[in-house]
Amino acid sequence: LAMGLSRKLTEKYPGSAGAQALRGAVFYDSGQYKEASAGFRAATNINPKYTFAYFGLAAVEATQGQYAAAIPYLQQVLKLQPNAAAAYYVLSDCAFHLGRKGESAD
What we know:
Layout: H1 2-12, H2 17-29, H3 33-46, H4 51-63, H5 67-80, H6 85-97
């Protein structure tokens, strides 16, 4: 139901970064990472300063064990929103999984 509604929302508001990011989040929650990534990417294309979408892209990558691929998205979040504590936490976790203990907070 949620996937269908998010599709309808993006069809009705194709230029809405929020609608695209919501679509990404719905697909992420259902484990459909390719579709989630597409939604988050569409949101960043519409609004390059939309930190939630970058965080979503990082979550997609990290959830699939692609920690190195998640890091640039997290860095973008922190560039746009330097006080984003969750991004620091996930960045530290990615560094830990990559064996970069000096960059992680144990």
